[in-house]
Amino acid sequence: MRPSGRKTDQMRKVSFERNFSKHAEGSCLVKFGDTHVLCTASVEEKPPAWLRNTGKGWVTAEYGMLPRATGDRMKREAAAGKQGGRTQEIQRLIGRSLRAVVDLKELGERQITLDCDVIQADGGTRTASITGAWIALYDCLKWMESRNMLKVERVLKDHVAAISCGIFANQSVLDLDYLEDSSAETDANFVMTGTGGIVEIQGTAEGTPFTDEEFASLMTLAKGGIAELVAMQKQAIAG
């Protein structure tokens, strides 16, 4: 039995609240159970210096956790004067995941920055960030389309979503919360597109190495979970 009482293939309750931020071109408060992340999208009318005069734009991301997102207060990374390695790794993952479904040439010489700020953490902050950031990006592109800056269907090629899976108490489970994540024998994150393309897989054995069969079971769970998330994204943007 999972600590939450969920079935092995059951996700936590997921919700998306669009237009959460008054000032951002696109925004979404995403909740995966007790993990809550505010994703905002901001447009700049110029690309990074290394992309100028190429006709291409860029999509990037920044990620952070508020001091009381967890049980104990964490110091702000700004106070330390630098970002930690985990923060850098996660924000690069978010950026890669979103660029996988964006036509950068159709975006034009602009940059969109997705800020993913964890308000409350209970496992799966990176997967919630990617899934919610897609909605913030979609709404940002719709904002741009309404100003005749681009056509969304030309820029955004597909959905992208992410989910965690792991081996907990000798069984493969979907969407780990913190209690499971902190004691899982294997922990993996899957990023996939709406059409089933694999963007990235991160998998680590915390103790005993996992087998081909166990990996296949995690992949099956991930595909089902991401299909559910994409369906929820579609429902969210249809409203």
TrEMBL record:
The keyword RNA-binding applies. GO terms for molecular function: 3'-5'-RNA exonuclease activity; tRNA binding; tRNA nucleotidyltransferase activity. Keywords: Nucleotidyltransferase, RNA-binding, rRNA processing, Transferase, tRNA processing, tRNA-binding. It is an enzyme of class 2 (transferase). InterPro entries: ExoRNase_PH_dom1, ExoRNase_PH_dom2, ExoRNase_PH_dom2_sf, PNPase/RNase_PH_dom_sf, Ribosomal_Su5_D2-typ_SF, RNase_PH, RNase_PH_bac-type, RNase_PH_CS. Residues 10-140, 160-223 form the Exoribonuclease phosphorolytic domain. GO terms for biological process: rRNA 3'-end processing; rRNA catabolic process; tRNA processing. Its EC number is 2.7.7.56. It catalyses: tRNA(n+1) + phosphate = tRNA(n) + a ribonucleoside 5'-diphosphate. Phosphate binds at R86, G124, T125, R126. Signal peptide: none annotated. PANTHER family: EXOSOME COMPLEX COMPONENT, EXOSOME COMPLEX COMPONENT RRP41. Homohexameric ring arranged as a trimer of dimers. Phosphorolytic 3'-5' exoribonuclease that plays an important role in tRNA 3'-end maturation. Removes nucleotide residues following the 3'-CCA terminus of tRNAs; can also add nucleotides to the ends of RNA molecules by using nucleoside diphosphates as substrates, but this may not be physiologically important. Probably plays a role in initiation of 16S rRNA degradation (leading to ribosome degradation) during starvation. Belongs to the RNase PH family. This is Ribonuclease PH.
